[in-house]
């Protein structure tokens, strides 16, 4: 039943009670003067208007409450991050539509299921330690793991969890679920590029040792000079003993470019 029908029913009950009261006092009503009757009628009319105004205020408050509720629901359901609430048993109690889409399961079938069912088997230990620290320590926790969608497609996810208590004092956790697959892929590419660069540098060092050739780089902006190990071997200087302010190959090498080439020096 709506609030408007409840208010109408209450007004009707109040009117019936007033009529019954008037019937009981009908004997007294006959003794009232015309002036007293008019005054009583005026008071009843004022009271009726007050009730109508109160009903209007209640209806306005109800409408504003519904607007606020709808706004909160939209913010919750269509947020860019997935929101989940689960208990100590790992059962999902509440979720928004974003999390539903990320997991690939309709909301009605997601509630009361264990979040662990969606964790990639290889990452189950990460999730287990995450939950232990969350409920035992009572502090916010973060972890990164892989979640498997309904049709077996895994994606990298970041879980930010905060332990709280319900109104009944039961421990639950609020979790934000974000898809970090793109950043993980970019990180893997950076690591692969760095590994390739290190492999190339190792090959360069080995090649320089074979041909007895060194190289150096000077950053004109930072005034930093970087030498390869073979530079020190060529000049017979220990790297640890070389002074930064005095060891410049261009000040040590004397002679023509041909002479410098004979010494096996290459500026890169």
Write the layout of secondary structure elements.
Elements: H1 3-24, H2 26-31, H3 34-77, E1 82-87, E2 92-95, H4 97-103, H5 107-110, H6 124-137, E3 141-148, E4 154-165, E5 171-179, H7 181-211, E6 214-219, E7 224-227, H8 229-235, H9 249-252, H10 257-262, E8 265-267
Count of individual beta strands: 8
Approximately how much beta-strand content do the residues carry? 15-25%
Helix-strand sequence: HHHEEHHHEEEHEEHHHE
Taking the alpha carbons of the first and last residues, their distance comes to 84 Å
The backbone outline, from C-alpha atoms, is elongated
The low-confidence runs, each spanning 5 or more residues with pLDDT under 50, are: 251-260
Tell me roughly what share of residues is in helical segments. 40-55%
CATH topology of the largest domain: Beta-Lactamase
Structural class: alpha+beta
CATH level-4 homologous superfamily of the largest domain: PAS domain
